[in-house]
Amino acid sequence: MAKKTVATLQTTSKRLTKAIKMVRSPKTGAYIFQESIMAPELVDEFLTKK
After folding, report:
1. Are the beta carbons of 7 and 19 closer than 8 angstroms?
2. Confidence at residue 36, expressed as pLDDT on a 0 to 100 scale
3. Nearest 5 degrees, angle CA 46-CA 48-CA 50?
4. Of the candidates 19, 16, 15, the residue with the CA atom closest to the CA atom of residue 5
5. How far, in Å, CA of 36 to CA of 16, rounded?
6. Phi, psi values for residue 40, rounded to 5°
7. Residue 33 pairs with which residues in a beta bridge?
8. What is the C-alpha to C-alpha distance for residues 10 and 13, in angstroms, rounded to an integer?
9. Mean pLDDT by 10 residues, the chain (50 residues)
């Protein structure tokens, strides 16, 4: 599976990161992309869980 963090977003109060991961759909078997904006510390946890 390809995993990639693609952007770092800067706001006035927090530093946020947008993470995108590719996962296989259980219904069709095709790959879909899940996107999430989170704190940089949580990116590794997001990418490792299925």
Report:
1. no
2. 92
3. 85
4. 19
5. 10
6. -60, -25
7. 22
8. 8
9. 60 78 91 91 86
Amino acid at 28: T
Q: Provide the residue type at 6 as one letter.
A: V
Tokens 């590794």 belong to 44
Between the CA of residue 40 and those of 1, 31, 49, what are the distances in Å? 21, 25, 16
What's the 3-state SS for 1-50? CCEEEEEEEECCCCEEEEEEEEEECCCCCCEEEEEEEECHHHHHHHHHCC
- The letter for the amino acid at 11 is T
